[in-house]
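User: I'll paste a sequence; please echo it back and then give the predicted structure.

Assistant: Echoing your sequence first, then the prediction.
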Amino acid sequence: MERKKVKARKLDNIIELCLGDSENLAFEDNTFDAVTVAFGVRNFENLQKGLREMNRVLKPEGITLILEFSKPKKFPFKQVYNFYFSYILPGFGKMVSKSKEAYTYLPESVGSFPEDAAFIKELEKATYVDISQKRLTMGIATLYKAYKK
């Protein structure tokens, strides 16, 4: 489907889609100016290995941008979000997709993902520098920005 979208927008001469393993990227060291991941890092089987691979393929001083779900912290949005995420979303997802597992996995994966200072420590362990974060959409998502040395 995505290949059709790229071709329909006449971008197939500058965008190449590749299927690969986040923990064993099929690119040379120091290849890219930027690496981005949206809502996928929490699914890495080995978080450190995936983060180090992303760093490996970055050029020196290259940027990594990671957008990931996070848990809101402010009252009352935190309570509304938790109720929706734990009770409404799985039920609605089961009605739509006939698979309760697909929509119970999301809250579980978000709940177990290290966020804020804990994720910044993971990025530091993977040798990133100048790390920052910005919470978005009342804390539902966080954008992490980090650079290669």
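The mean pLDDT is 91. The helical segments are 2-8, 47-57, 77-97, 100-112, 117-125.
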